[in-house]
Amino acid sequence: MSKLSFGYRIASFVIGHSGMKNMWGLPKEELISKCEKINAKRPFKMPKDSKAVYEDHIVEGKYHLLEMRRSKERSERAILCVYGSGMMTAADTSDTGAARKLGEKCNQDVWFPFYPLVTDHSVMDLMTMVLDSYLA
User: Fold this and answer.
1) Banded pLDDT at 11 (limits 50, 70, 90)
2) How far apart (Å, rounded) are the C-alpha atoms in residues 24 and 19?
3) Do 99 and 113 meet the contact criterion of CB atoms below 8 Å apart?
4) 48 vs 60, 103, 135, CA distance in Å?
5) pLDDT band at 1; cut points 50, 70, 90
6) How many angstroms separate the CA atoms of 100 and 85, rounded?
7) Which of 49, 70, 67 lies closest to 58, judged by CA?
C-alpha cells in the first residue's frame, strides 16, 4: 500500500466520522449557523513553529495574508494558495500546514489569504480580496 493510499484512507475515515461531510446537506440557515460556530473557533493565528519564515500582511485594511518562506529572502516565484471549504469555513492549521508543505515541495514561497467568508460577505468581496492579495 502506498503512502498516498494510506493517507487517503486516514483522511476519508476522519472526514466520514467528523460529521463535516453530512453538514453540507443541511438546510441553508442551519448550515450557516454551523459554519459560524466552526469559524468562531478558528481565528487567525500566526504559526509559532520554525518550519518557515512567516509574515502577516493586512489586505484592504482588515484581512490577513500569510506569507510563508523557506528562508529570509523571498524566492523568485510564489504560490497564491486559496484553500477550499466552500468559502464558508475559515482556514485552520491543517490548511496552512498543507500550503507550507506545497511551497517546500515546489521550492517556492506561499501566500495564503484568509479571505472574507461568504457567511458574512459576498463572493465579490472574497474575489476582490484574493485579487488584492495577488497584486500585493
Assistant:
1) low
2) 9
3) no
4) 25, 18, 26
5) very low
6) 18
7) 67
66 beta partners:
56, 112
pLDDT over 70 (residue 24): no
Write the pLDDT tens digit of every residue in 96-124.
Answer: 999 999 999 999 999 999 988 888 888 89
Q: CA 136 → CA 32, 59, 83, 110, distances in Å?
A: 31, 8, 18, 13
Q: Which of 85, 88, 82 is nearest to 112 (CA)?
A: 82
DSSP string, 14-68: HHHHHSHHHHTTS-HHHHHHHHHHHHHT-------SSSSEEEEEEETTTEEEEEE
The pTM of this model reads: 0.78
- 5 to 1, 11, 15, 122: CA distances (angstroms): 6, 10, 15, 37
Helix and strand element counts for the chain (H, E): 5, 4
